[in-house]
Design goal:
332 residues, alpha/beta, nine-stranded mixed β-sheet, 9 strands, 32% helix
């Protein structure tokens, strides 16, 4: 997974969702975001240089796995309080033995389910995920930022296409590709979208790479100081990539990188986020905030504590990392 690429991620909750089988309970004045993100594991079989799983001090890569049964109890209660959609991520979520059963259980509740994956384990799990009722398979092309030439792109594309292949017979119409763009790979967005369309995939979310200044790839990959003419050349390919809200999203992150404009609101917070360690947070990018842990506090108490962080909607804590997560309607 990219630096909290969810992306993503919560932005897709703006789309119409199936109604859970249980009616929402009455909790006057609360706002529970209809999307929840659940980290199944911090284990990952990739070591992408830009990924938060590599550099975030709050993560303990490879050491923590979620208790899915306990998490399900919280999500079941959340479904009664307005939750509509759950994304499962990591690490690499398909390294967790509970991933497929959790998808099945959430689907049985009437919740929309998404798996965010690098695609490395789809050969083993694609058919089982289909039968479990998975609604969307979000596959990240995490190597795309390093496509610093056409030759490099060809090599990286061949590897990615092999990862995609097992999913296509089962999920072709339900695959969304996260194309994580850097200053070096921007010129290749149009070609990538063409290749994916040839595979029958027409929904691509082009999202900006976040790479910290301490990262040795920073100077080569960051999107700061990209010339206006360079944005102009590649904006059409990004705006028409196919993901819901993509045009507004591109306008949002271009305005940030080109003019330093920050959003005044964050429609994605407060959100129910469950870490692989069982800690519950009100924001995907604020793992420093915790309202408790599953199994230690009752689900209603945890959810009420999440919804109490209404101050996060004011986006005062907005930082560059947030851009890769959401589309414009959630950050304005």
């Amino acid at each position: 997974m990219n630096a909290k690429s969810t992306d993503t991620t919560a932005a897709e909750a703006a789309q119409p969702q199936a109604s859970p089988s249980t009616a929402p309970a009455n909790h006057d004045g609360e706002h529970l975001h209809p999307f929840s993100l659940v980290f199944l594991t911090e284990a990952c079989d990739k070591t992408c240089p830009h990924c938060f799983n590599t550099w975030d001090p709050n993560m303990q890569a490879g050491q923590v796995q979620l208790d899915c049964d306990t998490a399900l109890a919280v999500l079941t209660t959340a479904a009664q309080r307005g939750l509509r959609s759950v994304g499962m991520t990591g690490g690499e979520p398909l390294l967790h033995d509970g991933a497929v059963p959790l998808v099945a259980a959430l689907s049985a509740l009437g919740l929309r389910t998404t798996i965010f994956t690098s695609g490395t384990n789809l050969t083993q799990h694609a058919e089982a995920l289909l039968h479990a009722g998975l609604d969307e398979l979000r596959i990240s092309f995490n190597e795309f930022p390093y496509a610093t030439s056409e030759l490099a792109f060809e090599r990286l594309w061949r590897v990615f296409a092999e990862r995609l292949a097992p999913a296509l017979p089962h999920f072709r119409e339900r695959v969304v590709v996260n194309a994580i763009a850097s200053r070096r790979s921007l010129p290749l967005v149009a070609e990538l979208c063409t290749r994916l369309a040839q595979e029958g995939i027409r929904t691509v979310k082009v999202q900006p790479l976040y790479v910290g200044k301490q990262n040795p790839w920073y100077e080569r990959l960051n999107l700061h100081d990209v010339a206006s003419a360079e944005w102009d050349r590649h904006e059409h390919a990004m705006r028409t990539a196919g993901a819901y809200g993509q045009a507004a999203y591109v306008a949002l992150f271009r305005a940030f990188y080109e003019h330093g404009r920050r959003p005044s609101r964050c429609g994605a917070a407060p959100m129910l986020v469950i870490g692989a360690d069982g800690r519950v947070h009100p924001c995907l990018n604020r793992f420093d905030l915790s309202v408790g842990a599953i199994g230690e506090a009752d689900p209603d108490t945890l959810i009420t504590a999440v919804t109490g962080h209404r101050e996060l909607a004011d986006a005062h804590c907005f930082r560059e990392e947030c851009l890769c997560l959401f589309r414009a309607q959630e950050l304005t």
